[in-house]
Amino acid sequence: MTTSATNGRKAATMHTPPVVSPKEWEAAHEKLLVKEKVQTRARDALAAERRRMPWMAVRNDYVFEGPDGKATLLDLFEGRRQLIVYRAFYEPGVYGWPDRACRGCSMVADQVAHVAHLNARDTTLVFASRAPQADIAGLKKRMGWEMPWVTVTDSFDKDFGVDEWHGTNVFIRDGDRVFRTYYLNNRGDEQMGGTWNYLDITPLGRQEVWEDSPDGYPQTQTYKWWNWHDSYVEDAAPDQKWVEISDAGEKAFRNQDAKP
């Protein structure tokens, strides 16, 4: 039990866990780890089920404003097969305008990993708001954000459930045809930002051989595609030294995971 006071406020009593020996701590950690592994496998199974969700054809010709002018929904893919669109609230009427975007959306933006890793998995991430491009460019510069960010000009936000609250929509294309494959909002958005969580909501997943995906889905060896974010080269063979290092690491992880 500990007592603490902050900024002159009345001290509060916290009913903290017991303090134990290293051996007891390790035992408690191992016990909890069993449950965490169950959760990890359940999350993998849910992602596998998500990859088998039906697709919905997108029939409207949505148009956005980007840094280089008008862009269609198909253009936002930037030639890649998958597209993730996060609806961020930055526009007149949002608290903080025009200097800042919504606080929650800004927290999401702060957590976004370097998009080169998503791009390497044939996936593009785009933020979308109703603010003009000049304001978006200024906001990105001020906040240090580098993800693509477009302006919504039509009913895209309403049609995909993000006209009143933030949300993430996922799309895939087959040639020039675009399909909606997944959508999440509220607390589901809170976990986004990391490369793995983004890939887990896409129809193709992480595209690694261990995943339970439908036949014919693209898959490569686990870890082998990883690279420094400024060193990805299209169609490059995995670096042999990295293959050796990742093989050793994967073997060690699997041996550890096999322990009771």
Q: Could you tell me how far the N terminus lies from the C terminus, measured between alpha carbons in angstroms?
A: 33 Å
- Fraction of residues in helices? 25-40%
**Cα-based radius of gyration, to the nearest Å:** 22 Å
Approximate shape: globular
Q: What is the second-level CATH architecture of the domain at 56-200? A: 3-Layer(aba) Sandwich
Q: How many DSSP-defined strands? A: 10
Structural class: alpha+beta
Helical stretch count? 9
Fourth-tier CATH superfamily name of the domain at 56-200: Glutaredoxin
Which strands sit side by side, in order, in the main sheet?
A: 3-10-9-6-7-8-4-5
Query: Unreliable stretches, pLDDT < 50, 5 or more residues?
Result: none
Residue-averaged pLDDT: 93
The name CATH uses for the topology of the domain at 56-200 is Glutaredoxin
- SSE run: EEHEEEHEHHEHEHEEHHH
Share of residues in strands: 15-25%
Largest sheet: 8 strands, mixed
CATH class category of the domain at 56-200: Alpha Beta
